[in-house]
From TrEMBL:
It holds the Pfam family WD40. This is Uncharacterized protein. InterPro entries: Rad28/ERCC8/Ckn1/ATCSA-1, WD40/YVTN_repeat-like_dom_sf, WD40_repeat_dom_sf, WD40_rpt. The keyword S-adenosyl-L-methionine does not apply. One of its GO terms (biological process) is transcription-coupled nucleotide-excision repair. The keyword Transit peptide does not apply. GO terms for cellular component: Cul4A-RING E3 ubiquitin ligase complex; nucleotide-excision repair complex. WD repeats lie at residues 196-231. SUPFAM superfamilies: WD40 repeat-like. SMART domains: WD40.
Length: 407
């Protein structure tokens, strides 16, 4: 009953917004943002979409191509790589996303070394990169599923990241390793062109700014967070203010906010913090703490930000927590997985959310309440609308088809 009331209120609010749009009191872009925020707040396990589960190990990283968000790239701890096509070309509301390419045991390019990162090349979905439990950064041709370049940085790689915006840095990959150095690799030459020196312990996380492709943030096992300008030859630009005396609390994950003005990071103590880089009188910016925690025993996690919609998605033990960047408070918690969640990825084109972890499942989330209302389809009662598919995992079957909160 509470869920019904919540959905009724959201529909009423949208009707009011549409009336304001007709009267010229609201812009179309403002309405689009309000509707996108509503959809994010109403995210739940999708009952219309299912991803074919082909993973042979726990999933460590997810990435969506930056062109139209159609292809989902996943990396596994076992060394396997999978690409799902998320487009629905069946003509039915309910469909299953298929694996269109994979590199698993038996493939000529397969390596048993664990994978920590798999990322699409931001300017061309025909290329992607992988790295992990060895010192090799591999650049792949997605069409042929072959390695076109291998870069050996001589250190075990914890994480790597490419700039998502076109600039000189778009050809640079920041590689965080078990040493105190961060390597910048130029994919045009396949060589390491520079070392960023400033950390004293292993670097566990790194991320480029989504606005300024030359700004890079890195976090280490000591809890230090450094901001770099990759064009400058001198040291880092800023260091995050820390407690005195500083406590060793290593950084598990780091990312920029959608406007590039702040950095969100999760530490070993499960604390979630927001580092405002600019606009603060205090040198080095201001650090704020979120209302919740990101629990879990994994050393590294992958979180994501919803771009212009001011939400952040963080793996939290067996669930995905959604926080507001404005209030720093918990908005929603998606408790679906029966194993630790390692990674999540938000699709800004739809909007949809995908999460994966130790249970080897990739779970899609959508706001589907309006679909049931618009097409008068009640998926819990009208099982004969579309033939029910056989779902590989019983837990996924129960969570998708026996959702009591959907009425």
């Amino acid at each position: 009953m509470k869920m019904q009331r919540k959905r009724y209120d959201s529909v009423q609010n949208m009707v009011v917004c549409l009336e304001r749009l007709k009267m010229g009191r609201m812009s179309a872009s403002k309405l689009k943002k309000i509707d996108s925020n509503r959809r994010i707040c109403e995210l739940n396990v999708s009952r219309l979409m299912n991803l074919r589960q082909a993973q042979d190990g726990c999933v460590t990283y997810l990435d969506l191509d930056g062109y139209n968000g159609r292809y989902l790239l996943s990396a596994c701890h076992s060394g396997s790589i999978y690409i799902h096509d998320l487009a629905n070309d069946t003509g039915n509301l309910r469909f299953e996303s298929q694996v269109i390419a994979e590199c698993s045991p038996g493939h000529a390019e397969y390596s048993s070394a664990r994978l920590e990162t798999a990322q699409w090349y931001p300017l061309d979905p025909g290329l992607f990169t992988t790295s992990g439990g060895n010192s090799r950064l591999r650049i792949w041709d997605a069409n042929q599923m072959t390695v076109v370049e291998t870069v050996d940085v001589k250190e075990t790689i914890n994480r790597h990241h490419m700039s998502p915006v076109p600039s000189e840095a778009s050809c640079l990959i920041a590689v965080a390793t078990v040493s105190e150095f961060v390597y910048l690799v130029d994919i045009r030459t396949g060589n390491s062109v520079r070392e960023l020196r400033g950390h004293e312990l292993a670097v566990n996380a790194c991320a480029f700014s989504p606005i300024d492709g030359d700004l890079l943030v890195t976090g280490d096992l000591e809890g230090r967070l450094l901001l770099w300008d990759v064009r400058m030859s001198r040291g880092h630009l800023l260091e995050m203010p820390r407690e005195k005396p500083p406590k060793k609390d290593f950084v598990k994950s780091v990312c920029f906010s959608g406007d590039g003005q702040s950095v969100i990071f999760v530490s070993k103590s499960s604390k979630i913090r927001l580092w405002k880089l600019f606009g603060c009188k205090k040198h080095g910016g201001k650090v704020s703490e979120f209302s919740g925690q990101a629990r879990g025993k994994t050393i590294r996690i992958q979180m994501d930000v919803s771009g212009d919609f001011d939400f952040i998605f963080i793996p939290d033990n067996r669930s995905v927590a959604i926080y507001s960047l404005k209030t720093l408070k918990l908005v929603n918690s998606l408790d679906v997985h029966y194993g630790l969640v390692n990674c999540c990825r938000f699709n800004k084109f739809t909007p949809e959310l995908y999460s994966a972890g130790m249970d080897q499942n990739i779970v899609p989330y959508r706001a589907e309440g309006e679909i049931s209302r618009g097409f008068t389809v009640d998926l819990e009662r009208d099982g004969d609308v579309v033939e029910e598919r056989v779902v590989k995992n019983k837990f996924v079957h129960d969570s998708l088809w026996n959702d009591s909160d959907s009425d």
